[in-house]
Amino acid sequence: MDDNNKKIRAVAFILAGALVALVIDVLFESLSVTFGKVARLRSDETLRHGLPIAVGLIVFLILQFNPKVRAWADEVISEVRKVVWPSKQEVTAMTVVVCVFVTVIGLGLGVFDFVAGQAITAFVQTNFLSFLL
Questions:
Q1: For every one of its 133 residues, what pLDDT tens digit does the chain have, with 9 covering 90 and above?
Q2: How many CA atoms lie within 13 A of 52 on its CB side?
Q3: Among the four residues 25, 48, 54, 102, which has the most C-beta atoms within 10 Å?
Q4: Domain boundaries, the chain
Q5: Rg of the chain over CA atoms, in angstroms?
Q6: CA torsion sign, 128 to 131 to 132 to 133?
Q7: Are 52 and 21 in contact (CB under 8 A)?
Q8: CA atoms of 13 and 60, how far apart (whole Å)
Q9: What does pTM read for this prediction?
Q10: Are 15 and 47 within 8 A, CB to CB?
Q11: DSSP structure string for the chain
Q12: 118: exposed, middle or buried (Cβ count in 10 Å: 0-12, 13-18, 19+)
């Protein structure tokens, strides 16, 4: 295994642990607004900051020391390395094509909407006037 893979895997696991810690913090805050008991728990600074950090650290350790997860992460890294990324010219050309198509389709839908609206308005007015007569 490449030493660079270990670094990438470690950074990815650290980010996963940080993301879990952030989610736990947001959930803890949301629950503290709703439930009084959770709000009292959240008022304790040790628990307020320690719980998300502890859960994030546990997630990191589980990911880092689970051989199946490490093997999966190494396979993901090796597959991502095989991806052939487009050049700057290709990305620019594809972006221009997408912008042109979005503009053309938008104009076409706008014209269709205008014509359909006018047709429905004329139809409703005609039927309404004939109904009154």
A1: 567 888 999 999 999 999 999 999 999 889 988 898 888 888 888 888 899 999 999 999 999 999 999 999 999 999 998 999 899 999 999 999 999 999 999 999 999 999 999 998 888 877 666 665 5
A2: 17
A3: 25
A4: 3-81, 85-133
A5: 29
A6: positive
A7: yes
A8: 6
A9: 0.64
A10: no
A11: --HHHHHHHHHHHHHHHHHHHHHHHHHHHHHHHH-HHHHHHHHSHHHHHHHHHHHHHHHHHHHHH-HHHHHHHHHHHHHHHT--PPPHHHHHHHHHHHHHHHHHHHHHHHHHHHHHHHHHHHHHHHHHHHHH-
A12: exposed
| Cβ–Cβ under 8 Å, residues 76 and 70 | no
Q: Six-digit token pair at 91?
A: 């990305």
